[in-house]
Design a protein that fits this description.
The protein has 285 residues and is α+β, with helices and mostly antiparallel strands. The protein is 29% helix and 27% strand. The protein contains 8 helices and 15 strands. It binds N-(5'-phosphopyridoxyl)-D-alanine. The site of N-(5'-phosphopyridoxyl)-D-alanine has 14 residues, from helix 6 and strand 13. The site of N-(5'-phosphopyridoxyl)-D-alanine (PDD) has 14 residues, from helix 6 and strand 13.
Length: 285
């Protein structure tokens, strides 16, 4: 079965789905995106993802290409046309197609909208979670507004590749004070020796992950203590457990940071329980 992509009002064969060379996403990374998990053919946390999309667009003064309700219809149509049971749907909005000029184009230039979907291998994801991942750390060299889910991801791309080059799966960015901000495409968490779950507050220095928001409810329901505060790399090395969160990975245990074993070097019981419980608290529509 051939894959289908939505591009500016049309459902096209994925192979030939294209945007114009003058699209500002291509020219300037002048756009934003969202990635939602799909389970049983249904969207996970659509409402929160679309609310964050709206916020990102507002912060950048890019028009919403259609109502959030209409966007939801397109997302579902792409999921259905690609017959995705378990996977991810990707949505990107840019400031549109216009002659290359740094300033915003004329107000009548329509924003571009692209939606794609792909199946993921559930067994492989579960195996990865059962095994846990290694992460490396590196200085956070991103811009000051990473709370906006911009498609400008060059530092994230380079960080992820540095991790892969070192046999790790994710890179954690560290700020100038030695505190962990977040992963290249995940939020970062630790569990202290006292059993407190710690993650950085969602200010302008991290993306307010949707999985992160949902996990707050899971943590509360499990009766765990949560601290929203910055934690240092040294604290992470000494943590009982560590893990990352993101839409398509949910909770992924971290078993090594910079080559040092975290806890006993195996996925911990708390991260494992949080992963198991996650979808009882996510919104499925
Ligand atoms: N990444 N931090 C960054 C920098 C991210 O790129 C992401 C998501 C997250 C987690 O956000 P959420 O829980 O809403 O997925 C945190 C997506 C999945 C990506 O770029 O593919």
């Amino acid at each position: 079965m051939s894959r289908i992509a939505y591009v500016n009002g049309r459902y096209l064969p994925h192979r030939g789905a294209m945007v114009h060379v003058e699209d500002r996403g291509y020219q300037f990374a002048d756009g934003v995106y969202e990635v939602c998990e799909v389970r049983g053919g249904r969207l996970i946390d659509e409402r929160r993802h679309l609310a964050r999309l709206k916020r990102s667009l507002d912060e950048l003064r890019i028009r919403l290409p259609m109502s959030l309700a209409a966007l939801g219809v397109v997302l579902r149509e792409v999921i259905a046309r690609n017959r995705i049971g378990y996977g991810a749907v990707y949505l990107q909005v840019t400031r549109g197609v216009a002659r290359r000029d740094h300033g915003f184009p004329a107000p009548d230039v329509a924003p571009s909208l692209v939606v794609t979907a792909r199946a993921l291998n559930k067994a492989r994801n579960e195996a990865l979670a059962a095994q846990g991942i290694a992460v490396i750390s590196l200085p956070d060299n991103r811009w000051g507004r990473v709370d906006i889910k911009s498609i400008g991801l060059l530092p994230n791309v380079l960080a992820r590749q540095a991790a892969l080059d070192q046999g790790a799966r994710e890179a954690w960015f560290v700020d100038k004070d030695g505190a962990v901000t977040e992963g290249a495409s995940t939020n970062a968490w630790i569990i202290t020796g006292a059993g407190t779950v710690v993650t950085r507050p969602a200010d302008h220095t991290i993306l307010r992950g949707i999985a992160r928001t949902v996990l707050f409810d899971v943590i509360k329901a499990q009766g765990l203590r949560l601290e929203e505060r910055a934690f240092t790399l040294a604290e992470a090395y000494a943590a009982r457990e560590a893990f990352v969160t993101a839409a398509t990975q949910i909770v992924l245990p971290v078993v090594r940071i910079d080559g040092r074993a975290i806890g006993d070097g195996e996925p911990g019981p708390v991260a494992t329980a949080l992963r198991r419980e996650f979808h009882r608290y996510a919104e499925i529509t």
